[in-house]
Amino acid sequence: MFHELSRLSSMREAADVVYRAMPPTPQYAWPLLCEALGTQVWVKHENHTPTGAFKVRGGLVYFDGLGRREPQVRGVISATRGNHGQSIGFAARRHGLAATIVVPHGNSREKNAAMRALGVELLEHGEDFQAAREHALALGAERGLHAIPSFHPDLVLGVASGWLELLEAVPDLDVLFVPIGLGSGICAAAAARAALGAGPRIVGVVSSRAEAYALSFEQRRPVDAPALTEVADGMACRVPDAQALDIIWSQVDDIVRVSDEQVLRAMRLYYTATHNIAEGAGAAALAAALARRESLRGRRVALSLSGGNVDLELFRRAMDLFPDAPGRVGEPAMA
Questions:
Q1: At what angle do helices 8-19 and 55-69 cross, to 10 degrees?
Q2: Which of 13, 117, 298, 329 is deepest in the core (most CB within 10 A)?
Q3: CA atoms within 13 A on the CB side of 173
Q4: What residues form DSSP beta bridges with 254?
Q5: Distance CA 209, CA 263 (A)
């Protein structure tokens, strides 16, 4: 599977599909972030897509392929914590298809509102993503809807278009920090690296309260783990995807954990250093880089700000951290 995903010609074709709906996103080396990390750091701004997150790239490519593979499909269904569902809603609307999305109870209110605004039928079921996912599969079979997985080669190829942009714009990177939800983002980074023959290490980032991928990486076997993070819902995965794990085991160099507090601090730093808003998963790569700050000196680092879709209440929580701290932007960084 990885050989097919890492063909540069396939990525270029996927990128062409993406660019019919959106332009490339920028990558910037923000001076205050470079100061905070003590080295050159580039941010890939996937929060600047039409849905505010990287997932839309995969949705566009998936629906393009679906229209050719199964032109009879009139309705689709999937599960999400938000960004995947917005991707489906955005692409389904462009293709004239009805979309049903299942989210767990207690999901982000603002992500739910964004999905409804894209015309999806939004249903709530279960206490976490896995329960919502299982319900979506059963409901899709009952209603005769096409079930869209959260991990699929077309999704990965679409997401890889963003990594191609970064790796071609900023050659000679030493390390990429990539948040892991269900795996399309980090597998796409690995595929783009292989396609271009680029050399950066790829470091995955998970929540310390959703360790399934870290434990699976360390033990070289699939390991389920509770998904209890209250901050990084985009990384709240309880059951890892088997296809994603195969790629991660062979292509990813390391996986690190970050706490909810570290993520909140990184959200705050993104705002004070760049005036960009990051959701929890979107700030996770920065949180990991800050935690490894000393080992990164003199290295060229890239981070994925993978999404900016955060509820106002949670963003206020991040901004209210350490109100009496010194004014230097780098002060919130962890030791």
A1: 100
A2: 329
A3: 29
A4: 203
A5: 12
Which residues are paired to 123 by β-bridges? Answer: 102
Q: State the helix-helix crossing angle for 55-69 and 83-95, rounded to 10 degrees.
A: 40
* Position 323 pLDDT exceeds 80: no
Instruction: Report whether pLDDT(332) > 60.
Output: no
Region 163-185 average pLDDT: 97
- Half-sphere exposure in the Cβ direction for 127 (13 Å, CA): 5
Q: Number of C-alpha atoms within 13 angstroms, CB side, residue 136?
A: 29
Closest CA to 233 of 98, 127, 97: 127
Q: What are phi and psi of 177, to 5 degrees?
A: -105, 125
Q: What pLDDT score does 150 carry?
A: 86
Q: Are 7 and 46 in contact (CB under 8 A)?
A: no
For the question of whether the overall pTM of this predicted structure is more than 0.90, the answer is: yes
Picking from 257, 263, 312, 315, the residue whose alpha carbon sits closest to that of residue 286 is: 263
Say if CB 267 and CB 332 are below 8 A apart.
no
Measuring CA to CA, how many Å separate 228 from each of 169, 187, 206, 225, 278? Answer: 37, 24, 12, 9, 20
As a whole number of angstroms, the distance between CA 298 and CA 69 comes to 48
Half-sphere exposure of 25 (CA within 13 A, CB side): 30
Q: Which of 242, 188, 251, 190 is nearest to 212 (CA)?
A: 242
